[in-house]
Design brief:
Helix content is 82%, strand content 2%. It is an all-alpha fold and 235 residues long.
Length: 235
């Protein structure tokens, strides 16, 4: 096509047809510009496709990580719920001085050494920033809730550490009060005393705080999951 324009241009110049030459020159420029625009369009389309594919991969990776976390948190949530209900029940047995339930009290006392622990630490947000993948996430609300999730994990870990410290504080007394081998009462007067009731209530109190912390983490995970699913669906 361009060869044809050049040939016509030469013929026009030779014949002194300036106006025709200008027309052909404009035509050549138009072809060049169109070629550039088409190339840019193709390049932009390819870039958009690549970005879309990368964004979906990033979203799916985040969703996989937080869903793994959710399963672990739900497991700890259920374990913690079972324990704090027993702790409160044990405190009630002591309050009523019900010696007929000493075997039950001994079993729950042994469970004072048990506690839920997810030990979760997330670096999703920082990894997204460092890798540049955060730029692929157009919905900034997702990033905001990822930050909130990481704050929730910090809170969970702090509460779990406090729970462990509480266990260490009364562990020696527990070992004196019951026999671990067959879970029988060694010192009933100690087991039914105020100190042990306070131990159970302390364990109950910190477990309630853990439930709140677990709930906050799960709440953010569910929000992030919903936002990600909407983003994938709309792309």
């Amino acid at each position: 096509m361009s060869k044809l324009y050049r040939k016509n241009r030469e013929n026009s110049i030779a014949k002194g047809k300036t106006i025709d030459y200008v027309k052909y020159a404009v035509g050549e420029i138009f072809l060049v510009v169109m070629g550039i625009l088409i190339a840019l369009y193709i390049n932009n389309s390819n870039s958009a496709r690549i970005d879309k594919k990368a964004a979906i991969a990033t979203y799916k990776n985040i969703k996989r990580q937080i869903n793994d976390d959710k399963r672990a948190i739900n497991k700890s949530y259920n374990q913690n719920k079972d324990l704090y209900q027993k702790y409160l029940y044990a405190a009630g047995i002591i309050e009523q001085k019900n010696r007929s339930k000493s075997d039950t009290l001994a079993k729950i006392t042994r469970e004072l050494f048990e506690y839920s622990d997810i030990d979760r630490s997330s670096t999703i947000y920082q990894n997204l920033i460092n890798s540049g993948e955060s730029k692929l996430i157009k919905n900034r609300e997702i990033l905001e809730h990822i930050q909130k999730l990481e704050e929730a994990y910090i809170f969970v870990n702090r509460i779990e550490k406090i729970h462990f410290e509480i266990i260490n504080n009364f562990g020696h007394d527990v070992q004196k009060a019951i026999k671990f081998y067959d879970v029988t009462v060694r010192k009933p007067e100690k087991l039914y005393g105020t100190d042990f009731q306070n131990y159970f209530l302390s364990a109950y109190g910190i477990s309630i705080k853990k439930q709140y912390a677990y709930n906050k983490a799960i709440e953010n995970i569910e929000i992030i999951t919903k936002l990600i699913e909407d983003e994938i669906k709309n792309r």
